[in-house]
Amino acid sequence: xxxxxxxxxxxxxxxxxxxxxxxxxxxxxxxxxxxxxxxxxxxxxxxxxxxxxxxxxxxxxxxxxxxxxxxxxxxxxxxxxxxxxxxxxxxxxxxxxxxxxxxxxxxxxxxxxxxxxxxxxxxxxxxxxxxxxxxxxxxxxxxxxxxxxxxxxxxxxxxxxxxxxxxxxxxxxxxxxxxxxxxxxxxxxxxxxxxxxxxxxxxxxxxxxxxxxxxxxxxxxxxxxxxxxxxxxxxxxxxxxxxxxxxxxxxxxxxxxxxxxxxxxxxxxxxxxxxxxxxxxxxxxxxxxxxxxxxxxxxxxxxxxxxxxxxxxxxxxxxxxxxxxxxxxxxxxxxxxxxxxxxxxxxxxxxxxxxxxxxxx
Length: 361
Ligand SMILES: [Zn+2]
Description:
Elements lengths: L2 H27 L21 H14 L4 E8 L5 E7 L9 E6 L6 H17 L4 H9 L1 E5 L4 H9 L6 H4 L45 H13 L1 E9 L3 E4 L5 H16 L7 E2 L13 H9 L2 E7 L2 H6 L7 H5 L4 H23 L10
Zinc ion binds next to loops.
């Protein structure tokens, strides 16, 4: 082990200890603000919460709003952590078409988690009170899964935001979950880390076979059960919108329309759209293509970044956490909240709230 390796190991061990204290604190005393740990020490990765802080935030949202929010544990991770999802609804007992908002399938992309939770909070606050949110929730029940890869999140936290992509982007088996879905037929077939590889040492390792991982199987089963018509998934940090790669002309146009609806409703900087098949003529075993081709759900992937940091071209920090995630998540939420709602509204109009039948994809 190198000197750097020893230092990292020491940091990891110290952080594991404090994580235990945090859990005990939560059992005894409840929640703590994201900027502090149980011992009142500064959280070095604030304003991002610890995994336990983030779990507490999710479960508390359901406890505080029993009439409009249901906490669903839709599966377990490799390390037996819960896969949480919040169903946000009008609370009138009426069954509505379902939409899914996901984030953080790559464990080191914490901004994705903040944006998904930020959307959840705004919908919960506005439900029955504000016109926009109430109208949106009259249309759809929204399922929000802010952390699709809790083991990756935990690994990144334990490393103080320094873990490599291999150790934190992937799940606890070292698999890139967003390359572990089946690849639809019809794409060019070449393997790079972008499309997923069979090399177990790569951060783009796609696993021994599609759906080899409990996290991806859980998404598959959730989608089969809830029959989503639309989905937005958050990543970082390329400032791009990647629609699911529909292989029919009509399907491709619909997907571009959904991506366009997102882009046009970004109040800050507008991200660029990566169209299929011109820019990316390959499948990647990713969640969006799987939701679209297996479940008929219109799905887009959003690569987030903070406008200000992007514009200022700030000096590159030497900790991976801050290379991957902006310092101020709140402005990123504001830049993406109306876009997310509008894109799902567009998907609803194009699908009638039903999955697209196989012959029309
Ligand atoms: Zn990602």
